[in-house]
Automatic annotation (TrEMBL):
<protein>
    <submittedName>
        <fullName>NUDIX domain-containing protein</fullName>
    </submittedName>
</protein>
<dbReference type="GO" id="GO:0003824">
    <property type="term" value="F:catalytic activity"/>
</dbReference>
<dbReference type="InterPro" id="IPR015797">
    <property type="entry name" value="NUDIX_hydrolase-like_dom_sf"/>
</dbReference>
<dbReference type="InterPro" id="IPR000086">
    <property type="entry name" value="NUDIX_hydrolase_dom"/>
</dbReference>
<dbReference type="Pfam" id="PF00293">
    <property type="entry name" value="NUDIX"/>
</dbReference>
<feature type="domain" description="Nudix hydrolase">
    <location>
        <begin position="7"/>
        <end position="139"/>
    </location>
</feature>
Amino acid sequence: MIEMIRYDNTPTVVVVLVPLRGGLLMVRRALPGEGFGKLALPGGYQMLGQSWQEAGAREMMEETGVIISPEALRVVTVETTPDRRQNLLFCQSPPVEHQGAFVHDAEVSEIRVIHEPTETAFPRHTRVVREFFMNSGDL
């Protein structure tokens, strides 16, 4: 009998910066646990069989209803969390047009466009948001 080796790989979380209406698109987290009720950048796990670009576009659609082009996403920075349990891939889309209301899933309680740096649910998000505004909306 052949023994199966089980690998415990580090998952990738794709976090997306979307310039919109002269600001930056943010979500208020509705998931219980860390960051509940606080603002964060949209994002989530890259699923098996998806490129990181496809994961970013999917998460953006699920959490905000905003459609972005996966091909237009570019990497801003990649970091590993201090506990080494996740790789965070921060990426940015070109500015998008989105008229009308936002639509979100159960992971989000509110969608906002911010026009200046703000404290977020996660220190890394806060730093990337601050850098976005310091660089006039382009990282």
